[in-house]
Amino acid sequence: MTYMALIYGPPMPPNMALPPEAHQAWLDYTQATKDAGVFVDGNQLADPTTATTVTVRDGRRVVSDGPFAETKEVLGGYYLFACANLDEALEWAAKCPAAQMGGKVEVRPVVERPVAVER
Amino acid sequence: MDVAALFRAQSGRATAGLARRLGDLDRAEDAVADAFLLALERWPRDGVPRDPAAWIAIAARHRAVDRIRRERNAVDKHALLARLDAVNATPADSDDDRDTLGDDRLELLFTCIHPALDRDAQVALTLRALGGLTTDEIADAFFVERTAMQQRLVRAKHKIRQAGIPFCVPPPHLLGERLDAVAAVVYLIFTTGYAPPRGAWAMRTDLCESAIVIGDLLVRLLPAHGQTHALDALMRFHHARRATRADDDGHIVLLADQDRALWDVGEIDRASASLKRALMLPPCSLTHEAYIAAVHAHAPTFESTDWDAVVRAYDALIVLHDTPVARCNRAVALAMRGDVEAARTEVAALAREPAMTRNRYYHVACAEITARTGDIDGARRAYVRAMQYAGDRDRYVIARRLQRLT
User: Fold this and answer.
1) Which CATH number fits the domain B106-332, given the four candidates 3.40.1350, 3.30.1490, 1.25.40, 1.10.260?
2) Which of B116, B164, B170 sits opposite A1 (nearest CB)?
3) Measured between CB atoms, does A85 come within 8 Å of chain B?
4) What are the contacts of A69-74 at 24+ separation with CB within 8 A?
5) B75 vs A90: CB contact, 8 Å cut-off?
6) Contact, B394 vs B250, CB < 8 A?
């Protein structure tokens, strides 16, 4: 199964670089998921001040700044993991540096659909 | 032929086997229910098979294959059928049924009591899948509407399937904490049957017995873990007193007033044997609770209870798991041992605990400790406070104690 790990942590000031140890922890973690054959994809997201929301109302596109999270935790990045089951995905999620440093990781399965038949 | 009893006793094993292979509890339960319907039709005509459990398991497997074949939209139809084919099916009446009928109930138990499910769902799933209780029976026991309970079960089974909660025993580094959760849920099922949260003091022996059966299973399959023996001992010590828990009018009879001659000696022996095994393994909070229950079970009268042993066991329990309830119970034991002042200090310190302020048992404990200091007025006030926070059922018992105060 494929799982998405959504990584939440305290908001970081825009453009603030991670301390080198933390940066290394993420690199090591990502490498470990790759070595285990679990890694499908993963990225850090730019800070929430860069977010833009688009909706369509009556056929018209409405673009707005934000949303700016007022919560203590913001979505900071994600991974996609290929795992046998939820327990395996939770193991990897728990090892992630954000989880180790007090953040939260939400794990959700990706809905599997039958492969579309080529025409 | 009592099919209801057979269902309760045997459906868990058949469900577990299928659920593990299919990774889907819903399909497994449906197939097992089908198999029992088939049994109701066939057995009166053809006679009860020599091994009804094996018959059910194999019939359920066939029904599962039929159901999956008929499903139009099953994404993973072929994969599901392949998983069922991997099982070596033997004809229902061959001699080696028992060997081929594996026991996957432990795996199913860890699925039902998975931390990704909330506590209410864990309890309901366990009773349904392993206890063989119907949705109505579970709804009744927890004072939930039938439809709400049904939704709770559907949602939980949906999550198991969609989120990929595995049907397996957790790896060693997680087994300890997962087993703690399993023991807590099984004990919760037991106490819900033993002391129903509402209504008359009619014990739900079906819940107690389901919990004891699951406890047995844990002891057999995970004998190296102290929790399993301690849980078994604790439930059996309580269960031994079941005949004396309520009077003829359905009012609860407190430990002090129970007729000890009616306690089930055989059950106490079984509990003691389990406790002995638990004490040889690293202790957990259940071990101390079982030990306390053992001291009560072996005391010839309430007054001659070894209160010193009870206090020491509470001390040990509080080191592992410090709760206001444990402290309150320890205070009562202190007073019974003769340390009334220490007991008073202890309950006074608990007065502001949110779990205690409106708790009738806390105020009863205060009343009894206060009465032992000779402060009858103070005790009376505490009993009255206890009555304010008690339902009708308990208010009667408290009123009786209040009357006895002199």
Assistant:
1) 1.25.40
2) B164
3) yes
4) A69/A11, A72/A10, A72/A11, A73/A8, A73/A9, A73/A10, A73/A11, A73/A103, A73/A104, A74/A8, A74/A9, A74/A10, A74/A11, A74/A47, A74/A48
5) no
6) no
How many residue pairs from chains A and B have C-beta atoms closer than 8 A?
29
**Closest residue in A to B77 (Cα–Cα):** A114
Rounded to 5 degrees, φ, ψ at A83 are: -135, 160
Integer Cα distance of A74 and B8 in angstroms: 48
The chain B residue lying nearest A109, using CA atoms, is B163
Asked if B165's CB is within 8 angstroms of A87's CB, the reply is yes
Name the residue in chain B with its Cα closest to that of A89: B164
Can you give the residue ranges of every domain in chain B? Answer: 3-88, 106-332, 333-406
Residues B118 and B58: their CA atoms lie apart, in Å, by 32
What are chain A's domains?
Answer: 2-109 (3.30.70.1060)
Beta strands in B36-130 (DSSP E): none
Q: What is the full per-residue pLDDT of chain B (406 aa) written as tens digits?
A: 677 777 877 888 889 989 988 888 888 999 999 999 998 889 889 888 888 888 888 999 999 988 888 876 666 777 777 777 765 444 444 444 444 456 888 999 999 999 999 999 999 999 999 888 889 989 988 888 999 999 999 999 999 999 999 999 999 999 998 999 999 999 999 998 887 766 665 778 888 988 999 999 999 999 999 999 999 999 999 999 999 988 887 788 889 899 999 999 999 999 999 999 999 999 999 999 999 999 999 999 999 999 999 999 999 999 999 999 999 999 999 999 999 999 999 999 999 888 898 888 999 999 999 999 889 999 999 999 999 988 877 888 899 889 988 7
CA distance A2 to chain B (A): 10
Torsion of CA B220, B225, B227, B232, to 10 degrees: 20
Q: Which two tokens stand for residue B229?
A: 């023996």
In whole angstroms, give the CA distance from residue B175 to residue B218.
13
CATH T-level assignment (fold) for domain B333-406: 1.25.40
